[in-house]
């Protein structure tokens, strides 16, 4: 299950937003005390949990890290309201990758088609960053990764070429003191290895 959660107390209050699927269109909802159940037709696609800090410990602003404790606490709430419990693979889908092949996009003057080794598979990723180059170590947001902005990475086509993932900049990763310029984050081989979880 692709379990994602977001918390922004400053702007929306003590409410935990929970996403269970890539489907985003809510057709109707049902509110039961502190739990709002979000539906797309007859399928539950997420929840809004009000007074969230009363139920879930150690909530952090932004994208919430999914841990066994988080899942247990959330499932206690769902069981209380007779909802199906949830699971997680606890994988944030951010990996250290290496650009092992690169060629120009046939329909773009700035995009490149990259083959990127993530340790367990080679991914084709279309990248428009001006600094991408062969043999670089990079941060790969694989499919189902959730960016700090809330964007979920999905398979796509860019100018007709399939792309499975994204090569990330420091700014897109919301790293402290990230430069506000275009360009992916290049990692030092002394500090990272292909296949590492970036946010380890």
TrEMBL record:
Keywords for this protein: RNA-binding, tRNA-binding
Keyword check for tRNA-binding: yes
Domain of life of the organism encoding this protein: Bacteria
Single GO term (MF): tRNA binding
Domain spans labelled TRNA-binding: 88-199
UniProt KW NAD keyword: no
UniProt xrefs under SUPFAM superfamilies: Nucleic acid-binding proteins
Record Pfam families: DUF4479, tRNA_bind
Record-linked Gene3D superfamilies: Nucleic acid-binding proteins, YtpR-like
Name of protein: tRNA-binding protein
Lineage: Bacteria, Bacillati, Bacillota, Erysipelotrichia, Erysipelotrichales
